[in-house]
Structure formats: structure tokens, C-alpha cells
Amino acid sequence: MIERYQRPEMKQLWSLENKFKKWLQVEIYSCEAFSELGEVPGEAVDKIKSNAYFDTQRVLELEKETRHDVIAFTRAVSETLGPEKKYVHYGLTSSDVVDTALSSLIRDALTLIEQELDRVLQILRDQARKYKDYPIIGRTHGVHAEPTTLGLKFALFYDELSRSRKRLDRAKENISVGKISGAVGTYANVSPYVEEYVCHKLGLQPALTSTQILQRDRHAELMSTLAILAGTMDKIATEIRNLQKTEVREVEEPFYKGQKGSSAMPHKRNPVNCEKISGLSRVIRSNAQAAFENQPLWHERDISHSSVERLIIPDSTTLSHYLLNLLAKVLENLHVYPDNMEQNLKTTNGLIYSQRVLLNLIDKGLSREKAYDLIQELAMKSWEGDENFQELLKQDSRVLEILDKEEIDNCFDPTYYTRNVDYIFERLGI
């Protein structure tokens, strides 16, 4: 991932040096386990633990020659040791090290992501409470529908991201496994005890079965979970972008002192952060497809997944972490314009209350079909002629035969539409 979209913690986590540190941990823990089984001398393990290290540039130099990153790594480590070097990578296959270390790295990355997501969830709770009773027009198909509240929008985002939080927990559990089971997963040259020992040391669970590798449904679940999370972030950002349109301007992402919106037009305040969230979310969703393609490998494994995962897993976790942090800043500092929200409720001259009038006519005995046709006729007259819908109702003899003017006026009370907001918030636990 380019540095522009990295945060320091995740950048360090996915660095080559940190990856090799994880590999070395797996190698050392394996030696310890073999020593407990009596297959590696204890003195050799002590020397390996004390002296084994690597130089990243040396690993890369050796990889040019060997064209194999794990062999390059083990040779670079061996160069720092004496005769005990023969026990490094003893009985292991490359993926014993790579896949187990990768699981540990992914788990650590998900912990960082969960911390950012928890922050976003708290901000959404706070904003939902703050704007719980702020009326705003609801839109279906982009067209004014009926009143809702701004707080309900935040509450819905909170609810949806809460589901992503649970999905992350499940994905984290399913990816937090290791395998030290040899070339085809049969433990031919390595005892299951070694796997149990190494996994315990790394805070992982041993895979119940494996081939040369961990099975990639685990990684596909991870990537699809991040894709769903990205989809919700995109959804929130898209809603803010739509509400920031000049002709709407009910909310606006923060615009900071010294910030510029356009190189040509000094007046512009563009939703660049929300557009960034929407754009980079596409990368995460696209990467999920690549993870699905990694599931069907040949026999006990092939290497077609490896090159893909070097890109998609660091990139998607890095972007998820970055975008959650960015979303938190947008939501926490969001500009809200209640006057514009109130004005937009009036834009359609009362048409948004048409269903309330319809239901009152039905309650008074008119059939649904006749009531609907009558109200639609007057609504279209208001829509096309820019006339006040409430006044048109009061002037229509067919309506007045059923509803008096006070009953008509009562249909235009916006609080009727938001009277169950507290119930929804209680159900959400916020």
C-alpha cells in the first residue's frame, strides 16, 4: 500500500522486518518444541534463541539467488549461527512458517481495525443521541418521502457497523490458527506436539486439518468481512455526500482552515474525505473477489494464492484501518444545518404528509382505492402547479365531506412520524 493511505501502526505491522520477526518466532518456538521432545539438544536451542537474527537486506540478496523467500530467510539466519544452525527449519515446510506467521499478523491487524471500529461506533452512538429528535426529510429513490430524524440515520449506521464488529470477531477467531504439519499435512517429519506448542506460544489454535497450507476459506472469510465493512463505510460516506449537495446542504463533512476545494473555483467545499472513503472501499471489495479465487488450489496446494495474498491482505487491512480513522474524523466533526433540514421538509408544499391523509380517509370509511386516487390527484396538482397541498385538501369538497379542516391540519404534524424514535433507540440499546 502506498504511504499516503497508511497509518504508522499498520505500516510497521506489515513491514518486511516485522514479517521476518514472526517467521523467526515460529522457527525458534519449533526448536523449543523439538527440544522438549528430545529431538534437538537443549544447548543448541539456547544458542539459537540467543544468537539467531537476520538482516533484511541480506535476506533479499539471497532471495535473488535462491528465488525462494523462505530458503533465503533461513540461510540468512543460519549465517548468524554456528553448528546449531542445522536445527533451524528442522522438519518444517515453508508454509508451516509462512501460514502460521501470517495468521498471527492478520490477528494483530484485526485488533488494530477493531480499535478503530469501536471508536467509530462510539461516535455514532453519541451523534445518534445528539440528533435523535432533529427532523429531516426521508428520501426513497432520492425523492422526498416522509419525515425521519437525523439521529435515526446515525442509529442505523451504528446498527449496521455493529454487525460488522461481530463479523470481525468471527473472522478473527477463524483466522487465528496455525499449522506445523509438514509437506502435505500428515505430520510425517514433525510431531503434532510441535504444532500445539508453537500455536500456544503465538496465541493461535492448531488447525484441525491442513494440507501443506491452511485452507483459504479462512482468508476468504476475512476478506469478505472487510469488504462488507468497506461497503458500510461507503454507504455512510455516500449519504453524507448526497446530503452535502448544494441544493440539499443538510450536513457537510468538516472543512478545515487553510483547506482548498478546487484549483479553479475558490468557493468550492468538496466532500473529498467521503469521496476517498467511497473510492478506496472499492479496492477492498475488489480484493475480496481475489480471495475467493484463492480457495480452489491444486491437490495439497499450489502457489497461485501466495502472490495474490502479498497484496490483498496487507492492502485491505491497511485500508480498513485508515478509512475507519478517516470516517471517525468526518463523523465526529460533521457540520449539521438544522435550518436547511427544516426548510427541506417544506420544499414539496406538504406532499410528504400524503399517506397520513390517505389513512385518515380510509379510517373514515372510504375504500383504499378511492382514497388513494383522490389524494394522488390532488398531490399531482400540488406537485405540478406548485400549490400548497394542505390548502388544496381544504378546498376540495370530496375531502371535506369526510374530513373537517381541523382533521386535515392534524395530518400535517411532523412529530407524528417520529413518535416511535425512542422505541427504536431503546431496542438498539443506545
From TrEMBL:
One of its GO terms (biological process) is 'de novo' AMP biosynthetic process. The keyword Amino-acid biosynthesis applies. Belongs to the lyase 1 family. Adenylosuccinate lyase subfamily. Pathway: Purine metabolism; IMP biosynthesis via de novo pathway; 5-amino-1-(5-phospho-D-ribosyl)imidazole-4-carboxamide from 5-amino-1-(5-phospho-D-ribosyl)imidazole-4-carboxylate: step 2/2; Purine metabolism; AMP biosynthesis via de novo pathway; AMP from IMP: step 2/2. This is Adenylosuccinate lyase. Residues 349-429 form the Adenylosuccinate lyase C-terminal domain. PROSITE patterns: FUMARATE_LYASES (PS00163). CDD domains: Adenylsuccinate_lyase_1. GO terms for molecular function: (S)-2-(5-amino-1-(5-phospho-D-ribosyl)imidazole-4-carboxamido) succinate lyase (fumarate-forming) activity; N6-(1,2-dicarboxyethyl)AMP AMP-lyase (fumarate-forming) activity. Its EC number is 4.3.2.2. It catalyses: N(6)-(1,2-dicarboxyethyl)-AMP = fumarate + AMP; (2S)-2-[5-amino-1-(5-phospho-beta-D-ribosyl)imidazole-4-carboxamido]succinate = 5-amino-1-(5-phospho-beta-D-ribosyl)imidazole-4-carboxamide + fumarate. Pfam families: ADSL_C, Lyase_1. InterPro entries: AdenyloSucc_lyase_C, Fumarase/histidase_N, Fumarate_lyase_CS, Fumarate_lyase_fam, Fumarate_lyase_N, L-Aspartase-like, Pur_lyase. The keyword Phosphoprotein does not apply. NCBIfam families: purB. One of its GO terms (cellular component) is cytosol.
